[in-house]
């Protein structure tokens, strides 16, 4: 019910149905999620600390990588702690304002990561296809502009959707078949016709996901074709460099495309795909980018040895 342009709602909290009611699977999910969350926190913090403290890594590529690690911390922290705490609770609840806040940060951080992945693809394009102009094009000012653009676009992306749903009336039911709040399932609970809102989610999150995914895939193909024209040996090196980026892109975007390109009928499978975005991807990003990068591994060893020597002295 809406009165005077302000929504009147009898729902003050939402109940998560969670992932499963099986005790064995809940225990397995608790162990796996806890391990991955702690590992992603430690891994991403280590990357940020290493890039910040090691002068050898003060370059555009590592600047963007450190920011990706910061974003991954946000993605996992927005949902994982609540999910882990709720696994053994019979009554999994979140307040109305908590649900709204969670959705805002999920889409803010998700939008930032999408633009940041484009920036990283652009960085690789310049490094591989225009190496002589790399430092001129990817100057500190350009890096800061790309980062600012990512946050501005992410903020606009989130706020536009929030503007549509913030005043929706909710009169029950209040059960979300998920372990976190997101627009497709949240909208379904509103006491109003949600067809136009579903279209809004598709137009905003859906088209953004598809557009960014296609831009990234096309850019990687273009880089590989360009390199192969100049050097067949260089194409294998470029493929090795880009394969890490491609893995990250696929892991991040496959769930997004499933959620938002057709939100009219949310699938029961969606909440399991969401685990890739909120648990696995933040963990795999540091693993993929460090294990395949000799310079990063050497820098981490230097940082760890410095920390060890400092602790011995103290």
Outline:
Helices cover 75% and strands 4% of the residues. With 314 residues, it is mostly helical.
Protein model, in words:
With 314 residues, the chain is mostly helical. 75% of the residues lie in helices and 4% in strands. The chain is built from ten helices and five strands; from the N terminus they run βββααβαααβααααα. Strand 1 and strand 2 form a beta hairpin. Helix 1 (23-53) runs antiparallel to helix 2, helix 2 (60-86) packs antiparallel against helix 9 and helix 5 runs antiparallel to helix 7. The radius of gyration is 21 Å and the shape is globular. The N and C termini lie far apart (65 Å).
Beta-sheet strand percentage?
under 5%
Average of the residue pLDDT scores: 84
Helical proportion, percent range: over 70%
- In N-to-C order, the SSE pattern is EEEHHEHHHEHHHHH
Rough outline: globular
Instruction: Return the structural class.
Output: mainly alpha
Number of helices: 10
User: Radius of gyration from the CA trace?
Assistant: 21 Å
User: Major sheet: size, sense and barrel closure?
Assistant: 3 strands, mixed
Task: Outline the low-pLDDT stretches.
Answer: 1-7
Q: Kindly report the oligomeric state of this protein.
A: single chain
Number of DSSP-assigned strands: 5
Terminal-residue CA separation: 65 Å
Strand order of the largest sheet: 4-3-5
Topology:
Blueprint lengths: L1 E2 L2 E2 L5 E4 L6 H31 L6 H27 L5 E4 H34 L4 H4 L2 H26 L9 E2 L6 H6 L6 H36 L1 H29 L9 H22 L2 H20 L1
Parallel strand pairs: 3-5
Antiparallel strand pairs: 1-2, 3-4
